[in-house]
Write a structure and sequence with these properties.
Blueprint (H helix, E strand, L loop, with lengths): L14 H10 L15 H13 L4 H4 L2 E3 L8 H6 L3 H4 L1 H9 L2 H17 L16 H4 L3 H19 L4 H18 L1 H21 L4 H11 L7 H6 L16 H7 L7 H20 L3 E3 L1 H16 L10 H15 L1 E3 L2 H37 L10 E8 L14 H7 L2 E2 L11 E3 L14 E3 L10 H7 L7 E5 L10 E7 L2 E6 L15
Length: about 525
Amino acid sequence: MNDPRAGEVRWWEQRWFALAAILLSAVPLLWPAVPPLTDLPGHIGRYHVAAHLADSTLLRQHWAYRWRLIGNLGVDLAVLPLVPLFGAALAAKLVVLTIPPLTVAGLILVSRAAGGRLAPAAPFAFPLAYSFPFQFGFVNFALSAALALLALALWMRMRRVVAARALLFVPIALLLWTAHCFGWAMFCLLAFGTDLAALREDGRGWGETILRAGLRCLSLAGPLVPMLAGDASGDGSLGASWEWLAKLQWLASLLREQWQGYDLVCAVLLLALVWLGARSTALRLDRPLAWAAAIGAIAWLALPYRLLGGAYVDMRMTPYVVALLIVAIRTRTARLAGPLAFAGTLFFLLRLATTTWVFLGAAAAQEQAAAVAARIPRGAAVLVAVREPCKTWRVARLSHVAGLAIARRDVFENGEWTLAGQQLLRDRHPQAGAYRADPSQMIYDAGCSVDAPGLPAMLQRFDRGTFAYLWTIDLPTPRLPPDVVPVARSGPSMLYRVAPNPDKRLPYPPLAH
């Protein structure tokens, strides 16, 4: 029997709701001067170097920036034109501010492209715009993933004009790859999945379906040219490694932020909704998005933890696979659709409120930790040591806070990323040895399964000819060598001056065991 309300446009399907959801998704990022995403301060330091290197002798003594086309430039290319107008920090905020709204817009559009209207369950997926990869500060990937969702909606809508779509998506694929190579790869998988669904729906056999879907995706292969022409990892290897148990952790960490019980309940709610969408007789899944998510899930299971010099490769895909499954959920009767959309909207608003609160506190903590940078002379080289917990749920947000000192004081610090093939930034301090770049700044808690030197080893071994200052963050006061003198404290940060020493290195007592 036909539902009398089948042709009616419900409140969550109207344009005002979509616009409100898109705009509201930016709210948690409005107040913090620097969005408190773990890696973002380090990125801000890199933006500052790229924008000012040519006219700063202080920066040139520490850094080099070698422009070329790589698959990790999304936010960089958007921020750099804004830096002369607003400075690196505000320019980064303005660009990062757009990523959650773009993500929500992409989810809305793919749901409409798959089913004609916004699915009533879709608001449950909107908080995944602030999922764990974004909280980590993987902003290039997050931007590429948001653009990938928008591109996927267009890809589905153009399924009947294959030739025109192929031509249009040659530059779109290159754009996605330039933003971030993993975002482009994710889009290729999802696009392949939607075409599998469409071809099967047309009644084609499995062999023909797979062949045709693969041929249709050849227009997306353009980025393979710069990838093969360059060196992806710096040593010619894939650098792949798997951590199978971590995949369960990524599911539990879908909305990981600060309060473990609350975040876990929210993650379980989303996963339960996905299960109900697949199994309940009262719900159904839009086939194109279900197939796309299935291909994404298979890739997620197969993907390593590390690949091509990047970490958390499998983790990055997790929230987007779950989000696609949620926006694919539709009810079989209109009577259930309204309550489901209402519950999803309340969930979205609840997560927005708590994320806003968390970000306010986290941004204040980051700024307090960064305040000691004002006591560092311009152009100095600073050895950074920051505590890296491994057994706490709360997202660690101070790992790269010293990057703000690059933007504010033109310093060198050892927490930047300089991996060949992945970043364009290079340092000019080979004599710093093991303390040249990320992750040398991280001091892991006892009990962490990480083979890394601790703070006593750092204090004994660092090059006195390179570093004039020591900056510890969230660490207890160490046993100081005789040439390291306290200068200033701010919250969890302690700044020390390294006394000049003509011999560069002094004999110190042996490390305690």
